[in-house]
Amino acid sequence: MNGSPRLVLGADTLCWHLRLETGDIDLERVLAETASAGGQYLQLTLHHARDRSVEDLRGLARRAGDLGLRILASGDFLGGARFGDQPRVAAERVEAWLERAVALGSPLLRVTSGFYRADLADKPDAIEAERRWVIEALGASLPAARDAGVTLAVENHSDFTAAEYRSIIEAVDDACARVFLDVINPVAALEDPVPVVAALAPLAVAGHVKDFELESIQTEGGYHRRGFSVLYRYPGEGIADLPRIWSALAAGLDGRELPIAVEGLDSLPDVRDQAERLRRSLEHLRGLVPAPAAA
Fold first, then answer.
1. In 220-295, alpha helices (H)
2. Residue 185's closest CA among 160, 215, 168?
3. Within 13 A of 85's CA, how many CA atoms are on the CB side?
4. What pTM value is reported for the model?
């Protein structure tokens, strides 16, 4: 390994999603809570800034800098073959997000495909069509990304396998197309996260980390269960084998820096616990070996 990896810890605005939607908190306060919890950057889902002008985003980036933070940008779904979308649809979406990413000073833009694997699990031909479509969509989007100096980072969004993701990046064959690695999303496809992280870490430029717990769904009377639910939690609150995942991630980085943001998806509109849970999670992650870089 060429030196120790630098795992730079931050928070995604998805931690505050419902409070942002109701107006109970604004992005300036989210920046302040991220800094106070010990985060080093904010992964801004652009949906949460949809009412902000480009000039407002430049001001938000300056505010982040005053707090010792930087901002990375997240777009959304590119589209999909099953919707009948043409690749140009993705390019148009990416172009709009790129303007905002540049205003934020973000060197990358996270994007996702338009499906969840569970929805197409019994349709392998449909999954293959989506894989081919993402390759074409990225190809159509890359000229604008190159012009903007921004890397497109496609998240493993509970959609493609690690092998399929590697095939996408290899087919696109452009340094401006890489992976946004969510180290826990593989569980949504009933995969072990460790080998997925090991396979995709060399292609990753940023990522998400969270945790999960399993909840049994019992029959009436509790004699047996109907099944179980997978519920996302903040890192350190669940059962994910984060030490093994962290080690696989670090080994795959081979000394490179990787920003990785806590993605707290179980927010409630009237519960203001995000800053404290984020603080505990960042402390938990810093206690793992290999430890992340200091701020």
1. 242-253, 274-286
2. 160
3. 25
4. 0.94
Residues in the chain: 295
HSE-CB of 9 using CA atoms within 13 angstroms: 26
**Number of domains, the chain:** 1
Residues 6+ apart with CB under 8 A from 255: 1, 2, 3, 4, 5
Distance separating alpha carbons of residues 49 and 13, to the nearest angstrom = 10
| Joined tokens for residue 16 | 């505050």
The verdict on residue 120 lying in a domain is yes
Token pair of 114, please?
Answer: 């338009």
Per residue of the chain (295 residues), what is the pLDDT tens digit? 455 568 999 999 999 999 999 999 999 999 999 999 999 999 999 999 999 999 999 999 999 999 999 999 999 999 999 999 999 999 999 999 999 999 999 999 999 998 888 888 889 999 999 999 999 999 999 999 999 999 999 999 989 999 999 999 999 999 999 999 999 999 988 889 999 999 999 999 999 999 999 999 999 998 999 999 999 999 999 999 999 999 999 999 988 999 999 999 998 999 999 999 999 999 999 998 665 655 4
Q: How far is Cα 130 from Cα 134, in angstroms, rounded to an integer?
A: 6
What is the enclosing helix (H) or strand (E) of 141? helix 124-148
CB 217 within 8 Å of CB 225: yes
Structural domain of 47: 6-210+240-286
Q: Is residue 43 part of a domain?
A: yes
The domain spanning residue 204 has which CATH number? 3.20.20.150
Q: Is residue 204 part of a domain?
A: yes
- 73 in any annotated domain: yes
